[in-house]
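Structure ticket #2291
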Amino acid sequence: MSHNPFCIGLDLGQSNDYTALAIVQVVEGEPMHMHLRHLERYPLRTPYPEIADKVAALLKSEDLLTYTTDDFLNRVPHHPELVIDATGVGAPVADLLRQRGLEFRSVIITGGDKVHGSRKARVPKRDLVSALEVSLQTGALRVAEGLKLWPVLREEMLNFKRKIDLRTAHDSYEHWRESDHDDLVLAVCLACWGVANPVRTAGGFSFEYGG
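Resolution: structure written out below.
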């Protein structure tokens, strides 16, 4: 597991959609659980370079950094895990994040039934939604008191419905109404999925970086 307990989900919206960010903190214990610490929605039509700047500042914030000491007694900083939605506008925004020296995992959301890849993953939307649903139903995800956008997130979740495509037997997730937004839901889903799906390394499991 990562030395940093924070995982950030970033859902990138197009011009008429919000871009949303969620921060989940992993809390060690028996059993391990997560706290939803922060929800943020950027104003509509916020320029992508500005969003990249804000995300870069957040990842480098002392509030989210943790440190370990190496063999030479140097303090080694560990940044939060960042999982971004690379579907649609996500690809060019990923380039902006790389230009700012950020490391992250990118997710392309699909309608399939299997996950492919790790650092650059193709993930069925139902897997992302299930990561949030299971965490809430089991009590593994707890919501920080006074989270301003929690009522909005809760409304988004209530407006979500699951539909089975009888032609493909695949699940799909869509809104009750076309005007509904799902940015906060997907941001939290990305963060929860990132925690639930650490990347295998030679030394065990950890988050793996690099878009």
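Closing remark: Residues 201-211 have pLDDT under 50 and may be disordered.
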